[in-house]
Amino acid sequence: MVNRKITSFDLVLLIIMVGVMIITLYPFLNILAISLNDATDTVRGGIHIWPRQFTLANYSEIFGSNDRLIQAFGMSVLRTVVGTVTGIIASTMLAYTLSRRDFIFNRFIGFILVITMFISGGLIPEYMLIRELGLINNFWVYILPMLISAFNVIVIRSFMDEIPIELTESAKIDGANDFTIFAKVMLPLCIPVIATISLFLAVGQWNSWFDTYLYARANIDLTTLQFELMKILDNANISSGQITTQNAEVIANQTNPNSIKMAITIIATVPILVVYPFLQKYFVTGLTLGAVKS
């Protein structure tokens, strides 16, 4: 084993990396500390990465003020799982079709996909289309509009283009049909890019609340966690705006809206932080491998 001497460059690099790590982690730790700090004490300021007066009252206020949060959490999990799985299936099947050199319409369909990345019909035509499809106050309004993303299809197709064509030709010689080649040859080789796109889809589904506001707010069974948290945050901001200098002391008996904001941020962020480490090792590979041309 070779002993390597630590140089001044190594020390400088270590200091820089530690500084970058602190800068990266500080905002999240600060949000966590404020969310776990007593609301009255938070008004004084000066909280950094550790709560000065630890309490769970902010989280109790959030869950206690809305008895639908648990149901909304389950709906968010359901739409995230179903939306991610169906999105991956649809995107990979379309990407595989477009990656086939013998498919005569691949350039035309690819051009149409790119156009959708720059041109949109607008919110009103989209709402009219969803209404005519009967998706208002329907669970599938969370799934079908987000089923295909041009960016995701292009990334997956680029990855598939890097897979040697000899593999699919060998499978054809062995008698495999297109579905068998897709399921048993292409998909196992595309795990890195599938994991990457899964993360994109999961984050998009989990953080989405505006579609609930537009299409499903009349059905309380379809309310999502992000939508309910948005309403709580909006109510907290309204309450904060109603406080005047004459009754500012009322703050001492209620939760600080800033603490509510921080607690909501933690609630919305933690599930994705839990999932990300399992997909992180595929993330860079999935985004870069398909973009390299030999």
UniProtKB/TrEMBL annotation:
UniProt xrefs under InterPro entries: MetI-like, MetI-like_sf
Membrane topology: Multi-pass membrane protein
Top-level taxon in the UniProt lineage: Bacteria
Chain ranges of the ABC transmembrane type-1 domain: 73-279
Keyword Transcription regulation: no
TM helices/strands, residue ranges: 12-34, 77-96, 108-127, 139-160, 181-203, 260-279
PROSITE patterns cross-referenced by the UniProt entry: ABC_TM1 (PS50928)
Subcellular location per the Swiss-Prot or TrEMBL entry: Cell membrane
Keywords linked to the UniProt accession: Cell membrane, Membrane, Transmembrane, Transmembrane helix, Transport
Pfam families for this protein: BPD_transp_1 (PF00528)
One Gene Ontology term, aspect cellular component: plasma membrane
GO annotation terms (biological process): transmembrane transport
Family statement: Belongs to the binding-protein-dependent transport system permease family.
PANTHER family associated with the record: ABC TRANSPORTER PERMEASE PROTEIN MG189-RELATED-RELATED (PTHR43744), POLYGALACTURONAN_RHAMNOGALACTURONAN TRANSPORT SYSTEM PERMEASE PROTEIN YTCP (PTHR43744:SF9)
Protein name: Sugar ABC transporter permease
Organism: Alkalihalobacillus trypoxylicola
Classification of source organism: Bacteria, Bacillati, Bacillota, Bacilli, Bacillales
